[in-house]
Amino acid sequence: MYRLIQLLILIFGIAYLVIHKKGYQEIDTSIISSIILKVKGLGFRQTDDNHTLVIDGADYIVPPQENNALFLMTNFIRTDQQEKRCEESPSLKIAACKNDTH
């Protein structure tokens, strides 16, 4: 009985996965190699409204989005975002924010 089950699994593997799905022709598109750059140091800038803006390595290192590419930040645009108001709609049942105090 066990040999029959093993034979059925083998036939399934050959018939479906190899012949029907052409599993032997699949191409692996994962990253074959990668390069890691270490960036040390801080960058700081005095803004127009007299605030000091500090940028470290976590702020300007972006993970690669495609193969064989390098991202180098050459410009930084500061956006004035603050945690002060509840942005979710109060009518939305699954919103995490119920009012401006939470």
What can be said about this structure in brief?
The protein is of the alpha+beta class and 102 residues long.
Task: Describe the protein's architecture and organization.
- The protein has 102 residues and is α+β, with helices and mostly antiparallel strands.
- It has a domain at 2-60.
- It is built from two helices and two strands; from the N terminus they run αββα.
- The chain has helices at 2-20, 57-60; strands at residues 43-46, 52-55.
- The protein has a two-stranded antiparallel ribbon with strand order 1-2.
- The longest helix has 19 residues, at 2-20.
- The mean pLDDT is 70.
Please write out the topology:
Elements lengths: L1 H19 L22 E4 L5 E4 L1 H4 L42
Keywords: Ion channel, Ion transport, Ligand-gated ion channel, Membrane, Signal, Transmembrane, Transmembrane helix, Transport
GO biological process, one term: calcium ion transmembrane transport
Subcellular location: Endomembrane system
By secondary-structure content and strand pairing, the structural class works out as alpha+beta
The succession of helices and strands, N to C, reads HEEH
* Count of runs of 4 or more consecutive helical residues: 2
**Beta-strand share of residues:** 5-15%
The description of the largest β-sheet is: 2 strands, antiparallel
GO molecular function, one term: extracellularly ATP-gated monoatomic cation channel activity
Signal peptide: 1-20
Keywords: Ion channel, Ion transport, Ligand-gated ion channel, Membrane, Signal, Transmembrane, Transmembrane helix, Transport
Subcellular location: Endomembrane system
